[in-house]
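Table 4 source record.
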Amino acid sequence: MVLAGKLITELGIKTTAEKYFKLFSSELHEVQNVCERVHETKLHRGDHWHDTDKVLHWTYVIDGKVHTCYEIIEEVDEQNKKSTFKLFGGDIEEHYKVFKLILEVIDKSDGSATVKWTIEYEKINEDIDPPNGWMDYLNKLTRDVDAHLVKGAR
């Protein structure tokens, strides 16, 4: 019985890796203004959006249904443009013991960039499906953020 797994998607983007990563590392509160599937993000615990001990509360849509969860940022590696987000509570804990999103924004040698999302999860039991709906969500989120940044809105 395998309960743990990993899903990965990698997408090319039109904006620079630096600009894309900045939105997630220091302007995370803007995601709700850019992505139609993110209904709301609010500071649940902490005084500032970028405090290390903050907890965010997300309301979002996956597979046509509204979901909620909490998030903490476990790691931000500015040099390698990599962040790890731990999701818990809300709908997440109904299905998963562990649920992490890892964002990597990668500069390519030809001057282009890609966004790599990795989902690491552990299901609460074998009857739970892998979080495949999350891959569609992350693909759409990536496209929405990229389009917003390309337009020069930020």
